[in-house]
Design brief:
Membrane topology (chain A): Multi-pass membrane protein
Number of strands of chain A: 13
Shape of chain A: elongated
InterPro entries (chain A): ABC3_permease_C (IPR003838), MacB_PCD (IPR025857), Macrolide_Exporter_MacB (IPR050250)
Largest interface: A-B, 21 and 23 residues
Number of domains of chain A: 2
Number of helices of chain A: 14
Structural class of chain B: alpha/beta
Distance between the termini of chain B: 21 Å
Organism (chain A): Thermanaerothrix daxensis
Order of helices and strands of chain A: HHEHEEEHEHEHEEEEEHHEHEHHHHH
Family (chain A): Belongs to the ABC-4 integral membrane protein family.
Largest sheet of chain A: 6 strands, mixed, barrel
CATH topology of chain B: Rossmann fold
Protein name (chain A): ABC transporter permease
CATH class of chain B: Alpha Beta
Strand order of the largest sheet of chain A: 3-4-11-6-8-7
Helix content of chain A: 55-70%
Order of helices and strands of chain B: EEEHEEHEHHHEHEHEE
Largest sheet of chain B: 6 strands, mixed
Number of domains of chain B: 1
Strand content of chain A: 15-25%
Oligomer: heterodimer
Chain lengths: ~400, ~260
């Protein structure tokens, strides 16, 4: 019975193809909007978490907080992370696979007649490749001894090595960074662009070399051996929360501050992702509202056209009643018709949404991920819209007096 | 003919529209009995109440007062839903303007009453065969897949008659069935109705055309809501059917009951 009604509904919609299509446009747009928006926001989220995890896995970021620096107070007394904290964490905390700190400087690099301006010199510690997930292609990375002695050595990113040396082997050669000569001891394997940093364009050197030679003197005095951020890589088998807790205790102890008002803050990758996600969630909620309004408008369009349809088909309704259709039969027929109309819009909308997501992804270069739940939700909303906005016209049709309906011209 | 079961019986059937001074009495108390196998014409000038009577007999409307027994059931107090069901089961309607649904083929139009049937529902294929048989019985078996606009007026009306027959109703009610047709097509339809009558169908036909009424065997005349005459029509049996129904056409004369 219901399939016959659906067939009948499909037929009457097909009799007015253009009108039916235009009527469903609101639903199509609404459903497509939901799917595209969800795809964009899911894609963005995935891209964010991927870029955060591509820094290396299971990382903890410890930052200095200088908020307690009062007016007239000397910054050196304000606490914060110091270089020795790196070694302390490395030695005292279990489940830590690497601890690193970095200090960057923008430099000019010369080698023979090649000069490169605005190159980033990355002063780090030996754990840096472990923490950032880098690997050495040729030669070696520097050791902690070389860091402590501020040995003038350099490890090159893949791209910068090619720029400076071309096909030549850079190992053992010398480059001039600003006025300092550094000996190349290694070249890293390709890493690419991660979270806005092209690791292949960097020159890596012991952090103490940067402290001594490349930090502006004023800044050096201000900072002393202070560092902005320490990055800790945690063993995947260890409980990251426990590690965070132990580091907090250790640093609070070392800096002689209470845990209630520490001079550092600790965030895990999960914390950062969560923070980013709450931003995208706000954005997504807004889009869902927009899509809902579109569906609402689509529903009103369906109601409108169904009311027209009921009026146009008054005689048909009268005839159906005359041959035995009950008011419920009539009501169901028009309700099914509205439902078919809205589901049609839903199906087309899903198609348009998926195609639109791909197209948007291709054109903008942004990542889009089709969310199955978005398809489910939008299809269900389309069905609800059909039933909700089909009800009034269907009831009107069911209430027609057969005598009046049969006489209607 | 008195032995035939009663299909329609009305007792003091009244229909009043409006109230107070604006009250219009459409039917002023109609007592009427129609037995199985009769071919009856209801005549009367416009405004006489014949349409109102037809609507009530067709279960499209309810009387204000009085009783209406259709095939033994008092339907005068039926609500909309039950009226719809009884229409589908007991009544085959034929309209002046055919009322075929233009989007459906002849066959699908004939299938409609089966579609809305609640009892003895037929599986799709059986329903199709049944509808096709009904179309064949009106001589349109070869037009089953034509749409109404591909058929002549007479053919459309024959499809409508097939639709009226398909649920095997107790009575066929035809409202000016030839009103939109030329004389040739009219004759075709009247011949068809007579043939159905000959097969034992009970047919009530509303018309204002005496020539059409002449084809029936009994004429009821309505005026100002009253049944003013009820007479047998001798000429109807120019070609008497061979079955028992034709035994005594004169006996249909006194079917009006004034004694209720």
């Amino acid at each position: 019975m219901i399939t016959e009604i659906a067939k009948e509904a499909w037929r009457s919609l097909r009799a007015n193809k253009l009108r039916s299509l235009l009527t469903t446009l609101g639903v199509i747009i609404g459903v497509a909007a939901v799917i595209v928006m969800m795809a964009i926001s899911a894609g963005t989220e995935a891209a964010i978490s991927e870029s955060i995890y591509s820094l290396g896995s299971n990382l903890i970021f410890i930052s200095s907080t200088f908020s307690r620096v009062g007016p007239g107070e000397r910054p050196q007394n304000a606490g914060g992370l110091v270089y020795d904290d790196v070694a302390a964490i490395r030695e005292k905390i279990k489940g830590v696979t690497g601890v690193t700190v970095d200090q960057q400087a923008s430099v000019t690099v010369r080698r023979g007649d090649i000069t490169l301006d605005g190159v980033m010199l990355m002063g780090t510690t030996p754990d840096y490749p472990i923490v950032r997930g880098l690997s050495v292609a040729t030669g070696r990375y520097f050791t902690s001894t070389e860091v402590e002695r501020a040995q003038k050595v350099a490890v090159l990113g893949k791209t910068i090595a090619e720029k400076l040396f071309g096909e030549e082997d850079p190992i053992g050669q010398t480059i001039t960074v600003n006025k300092t000569q550094l000996t190349v001891i290694g070249v890293l394997a390709e890493k690419g662009l991660v979270a806005g940093t092209d690791f292949d364009q960097l020159i890596y050197t012991p952090i103490k070399v940067v402290f001594q030679k490349f930090t502006p003197s004023q800044f050096a005095r201000f900072m002393g051996d202070r560092v902005r951020q320490i990055t800790v890589a945690v063993d995947p088998k260890a409980n990251i929360d426990t590690v965070v807790e132990q580091i907090s205790l250790l640093l609070a102890n070392r800096h002689n501050v209470s845990l209630d008002s520490p001079d550092f803050s600790i965030r895990t990758q999960a914390d950062i992702i969560k923070a980013r996600e709450s931003t995208t969630a706000t954005f997504r909620n807004l889009l869902i509202w927009v899509a809902s309004v579109s569906l609402l408008v689509g529903g009103i369009g369906i109601m409108n056209i169904m009311l027209v349809s009921v009026t146009e088909r008054t005689r048909e309704i009268g005839l159906r009643q005359a041959v035995g259709a009950t008011p419920e039969d009539i009501q169901i027929q028009f309700l099914v018709e509205a439902l078919v109309l809205s589901l049609l819009g839903g199906v087309i909308g899903i198609g348009v949404g998926i195609a639109g997501s791909h197209l948007f992804g291709t054109l903008s270069g942004m990542r889009t991920v089709i969310v199955p739940s978005a398809i489910g939700i939008s299809f269900t909303s389309a069905a609800l819209v059909g039933i909700l906005f089909g009800y009034l016209p269907a009831r009107r049709a069911a209430r027609l007096d057969p005598i009046v309906a049969l006489r209607y011209e | 003919m008195e032995n035939e079961p009663i299909i329609i019986r009305t007792e003091n059937l009244k229909k009043v529209y409006g109230s107070g001074e604006a009250q219009v009495i459409a039917l002023a108390g109609i007592n009427l009995t129609i037995r199985q196998g009769e071919f009856v014409a209801i005549m009367g000038p416009s405004g006489s109440g014949k349409s109102t009577l037809l609507n009530i007999l067709a279960c499209l409307d309810r009387p204000s007062e009085g009783s209406y027994y259709l095939d033994g059931i008092d339907v005068s107090q039926y609500q909309r839903r039950d009226l719809a069901l009884i229409r589908g089961r007991k009544i085959g309607m034929v309209f002046q303007s055919y009322n075929l649904l233009p989007r459906l083929t002849a066959l699908e139009n004939v299938l409609l009453p089966i579609f809305y049937r609640r009892e003895q529902r037929l599986p799709a294929e059986a329903a199709r065969q049944h509808a096709l048989a009904a179309l064949e019985s009106v001589g349109l078996g070869d037009r089953a897949h034509h749409y109404p606009n591909q058929l002549s007026g007479g053919q459309q009306q024959r499809v409508a008659i097939a639709r009226a027959l398909v649920n095997d109703p107790a009575i066929i009610l035809a409202d000016e069935p030839t009103g939109n047709l030329d004389s040739h097509a009219s004759q075709e339809i009247l011949d068809l109705l007579q043939r159905l009558h000959a097969q034992g169908r009970t047919i009530v036909l509303v018309t204002h055309d005496p020539e059409v009424a002449a084809h029936t065997e009994r004429i009821l005349l309505i005026r100002d809501g009253h049944l003013i005459s009820d007479q047998s029509n001798g000429r109807t049996r120019s070609t008497p059917p061979s079955n028992a129904l034709s035994s005594s056409p004169a006996s249909t004369t006194l079917e009006v009951h004034h004694d209720h």
